[in-house]
């Protein structure tokens, strides 16, 4: 990647101008757009698919946290704010960094170095359609008072729960307020597989496969969860995983 596509969402024109002056010092940053509120920022992010989001927290009508909740896929996020009381909450949202205004060049450089370090090992060629996520894509999940930014590649499996979907990653299993079918439409097909009506698995997290009843397979995931593959899908799974 030659440049880091950057979007700036900030309600203060003065603060936007100050950030734009900082951005000019870094050839690797390409400012692809700016917005003064959450709704315009949401449309801008959807249209430009940036790598980096510089996001103010305290804005009128909707705040920066609400913007993250609106997004299906969340760019690397660096919060910019004049209020230090949001710091703890920002890291609950897995923000990469938290810049307190006024922001100086040295502190801004530290944040950009973190961005470059995070982007470098995860860049994947964009061979899928714009609608498809990659293994490096991040999604935002809010369940109750807890929030996560999680990479698709770190999710072991999804499971249907009524009209919602439970997401399994690390030791967490929050609810995502989308149906399993909606989730499946966006997942990279080469890595995710519909095991049955209720579950989609990340094949990278399959630890063990054993024959089961009536031509079915039973999978053990790396977190020790066991998943039964339906008979029809067992044939497809064998085909998908064979040489």
From TrEMBL:
SUPFAM superfamilies: CheY-like. Keywords: Phosphoprotein. It comes from the Bacteria. The keyword Phosphoprotein applies. Coiled coil: none annotated. Residues 139-243 form the HTH LytTR-type domain. Residues 5-116 form the Response regulatory domain. The modification 4-aspartylphosphate is found at residue 56. The keyword Iron-sulfur does not apply. It holds the Pfam family LytTR. This is Response regulator transcription factor. GO terms for molecular function: DNA binding; phosphorelay response regulator activity.
């Amino acid at each position: 990647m030659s440049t880091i596509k950057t979007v700036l969402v900030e309600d203060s024109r003065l603060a936007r101008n100050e950030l734009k002056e900082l951005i000019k010092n870094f050839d690797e940053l390409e400012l692809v757009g700016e917005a003064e509120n959450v709704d315009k920022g949401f449309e801008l992010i959807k249209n430009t698919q940036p790598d980096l989001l510089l996001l103010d927290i305290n804005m009128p009508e909707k705040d920066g946290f609400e913007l993250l909740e609106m997004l299906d896929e969340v760019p690397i996020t660096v919060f910019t704010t004049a209020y230090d009381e949001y710091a703890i909450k920002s890291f609950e949202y897995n923000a990469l960094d938290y810049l307190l205004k006024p922001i100086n060049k040295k502190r801004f450089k530290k944040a950009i170095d973190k961005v470059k370090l995070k982007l470098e090992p995860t860049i994947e060629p964009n061979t899928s359609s714009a609608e498809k996520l990659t293994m490096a894509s991040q999604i935002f999940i809010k369940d109750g008072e807890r929030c996560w930014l999680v990479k698709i590649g770190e999710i072991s499996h999804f499971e249907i729960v009524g009209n919602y979907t439970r997401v399994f990653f690390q030791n967490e299993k929050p609810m995502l307020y989308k149906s399993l079918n909606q989730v499946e439409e966006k997942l990279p097909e080469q890595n995710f597989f519909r095991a049955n009506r209720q579950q989609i698995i990340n094949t990278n997290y399959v630890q063990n496969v054993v024959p089961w009843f009536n031509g079915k397979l039973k999978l053990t995931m790396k977190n020790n969860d066991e998943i039964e593959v339906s008979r029809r899908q067992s044939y497809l799974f064998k085909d998908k995983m064979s040489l």
